[in-house]
Design goal:
The protein is of the alpha/beta class. Helices cover 41% and strands 21% of the residues. It has a single domain, classed as Response regulator (Rossmann fold, 3-Layer(aba) Sandwich), CATH 3.40.50.2300. It contains 5 helices and 5 strands. It has a 5-stranded parallel beta sheet with strand order 2-1-3-4-5, sandwiched between helices. The longest helix has 13 residues. 31% of the residues are buried.
């Protein structure tokens, strides 16, 4: 069982990710912006993976900002990126932490496969 920090600014999508992660047997932590993500990352609780939306509205680089700061706080943290847009080379050039990607909307089986790749 892994602890996965989900950073998603759209509530419905964040809740869907929470349920999908719970159904896979993992523990989700939820954040809707950089500040709340940093609170989780700065706490003493163990976190295995960051699942972050690339296009977070209030940040210049969106989920990339979150991922870069997360890696700074917790080196070795694995990162799974998501977006409603297809993956491009420009997007993947900014990936850190293992840099896997899953496009929205995703099926639970796709999420399970992506999480498995990052954690093993």
């Amino acid at each position: 069982m892994a602890v996965i920090l989900v950073v998603e600014d759209e509530m419905v999508i964040r809740l869907a990710a929470e349920w999908a992660i719970e159904d896979l047997g993992h523990t989700p932590l939820l954040a809707d912006d950089l500040e709340s993500a940093l609170l989780h990352l700065s706490a003493s609780q163990h976190i295995d993976m960051l699942f972050v939306d690339i296009r977070l509205g209030k940040l210049a680089l969106g989920g990339y900002d979150v991922a870069n700061q997360a890696i700074g706080i917790r080196p070795g943290l694995r990162v799974l990126y998501t977006s409603g847009s297809p993956l491009t080379a420009d997007m993947s050039d900014l990936f850190v932490g293992g840099g896997q990607f899953i496009q929205k909307p995703y099926w639970p089986e796709q999420l399970e496969l992506a999480v498995g790749k990052l954690l093993h």
